[in-house]
Amino acid sequence: MWAREAGLRHVQRAVEDPSVRDNIARVSRGPFEEAAKLPPEVLRVAFDLAESAVDAFAKRLLGILTSQGTSLRVDRNHAVRFILTAEIIEDEDEEVIFSQEINRGGRLAFSSRWGSWLYDYGERKDPGAL
Prior knowledge:
extended
């Protein structure tokens, strides 16, 4: 959730603040410059749409990363699966003190919990207030 919130806040700041836009590569700056010209009510809808796009992407990415079957085909005879491992490490030397696969054996797929995560951990205030 922190990455989602940070990304959405960056988009809002880049639209609202020309000094933030100045730090974005020129090739990527255009959409922010155009959005900055929009009236507030249209901008609110655009922010809501951006938030929905981030959520849709995240759900699909989580679905791919947690796939346990053979649906992610490489070719006729092979499929790919990903294993996600969470590690707890020591700050000082980065020694791993605990490691566990987190996308195997769960009751529900990660992507099916997205709505609950948004409800429990999302920082959304009101529509468009990213």
